[in-house]
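Deliverable D2.4 — example input (structure tokens):
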């Protein structure tokens, strides 16, 4: 059967993609950010996942105020990088896994979670920047990717608890797929940041690191934090962190933390990154 072997969390700051695309990754400002992913690039090269289920939020590229799905799963064959106003990122086309995606959609919907199925959409920096951080700049992404877009842009967002329980339904769905696949689940976005208003530029390192601690060791309790606490403590865009709870819910209750990285600043945000492995994977 298919199995979820590991979870990855990472911020998806658009300026990180621009730094890579414009050859600025070795600049004094950006070098500490990319250094935090050196272990990760070697780790994933050795792990060789077949499929990444990548949880992210769209930034008005595939969706707009005309259509705002709370949870949307990509079930198509491929996804082009989005033009977010300055041209498409020079990164490979994302190849999907329709068979697994449709299986997940059926299983999760039958588990009482409503998903929107999307056959065609472009994917923006929310999805492509994490891939670049983990894989570098290859001619083709080395595995299939199932995009999973979550609305954390327009009120109301899903609760952390809903996201955590959705992760559990995702794990059940993957494990019932009749194929030998190494599946990773990634939660992206965050950490603390606010892009507008009097608190623009807010970064709360104490909150961020407590969140990382609890995500690893106390996710059940963390999942009950109300969304207003994210906004109050981590800024208006800090609500993106609920997407990390989808990843965490898809893993076992106890996990091994293989890598942890936190850095301030990257553009106007804090960057957080974890690699978590199911304890059952260790021999």
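Example output (designed residues):
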């Amino acid at each position: 059967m298919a199995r979820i072997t590991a979870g990855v969390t990472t911020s998806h700051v658009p300026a990180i993609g621009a730094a890579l695309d414009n050859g600025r990754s070795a600049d004094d400002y950006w070098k500490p950010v990319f250094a935090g992913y050196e272990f990760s690039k070697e780790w994933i090269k050795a792990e060789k996942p077949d499929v990444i289920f990548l949880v992210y939020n769209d930034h008005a590229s595939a969706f707009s105020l005309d259509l705002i799905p709370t949870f949307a799963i990509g079930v198509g064959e491929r996804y082009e990088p989005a033009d977010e106003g300055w041209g498409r990122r020079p990164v490979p086309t994302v190849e999907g896994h329709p068979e697994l995606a449709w299986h997940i959609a059926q299983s999760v919907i039958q588990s009482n979670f409503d998903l929107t199925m999307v056959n065609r959409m472009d994917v923006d920096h929310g999805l492509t920047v994490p891939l670049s951080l983990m894989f570098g700049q290859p001619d083709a992404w080395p595995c299939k990717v199932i995009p999973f877009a979550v609305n954390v842009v327009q009120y109301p967002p899903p609760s952390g608890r809903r996201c955590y329980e959705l992760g559990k339904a995702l794990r059940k769905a993957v494990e019932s797929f009749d194929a030998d696949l190494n599946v990773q689940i990634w939660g992206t976005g965050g950490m603390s940041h606010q892009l507008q208003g009097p608190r623009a530029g807010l970064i709360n390192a104490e909150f961020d690191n407590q969140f990382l601690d609890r995500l690893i060791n106390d996710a059940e309790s963390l999942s009950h934090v109300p969304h207003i606490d994210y906004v109050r403590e981590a800024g208006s865009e800090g609500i993106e962190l609920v997407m990390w709870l989808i990843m965490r819910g898809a893993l076992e209750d106890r996990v091994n933390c293989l890598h942890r990285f936190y850095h301030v600043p990257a553009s106007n945000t804090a960057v957080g990154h974890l690699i978590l492995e199911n304890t059952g994977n260790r021999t």
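DSSP finds ten helices and ten strands in the chain.
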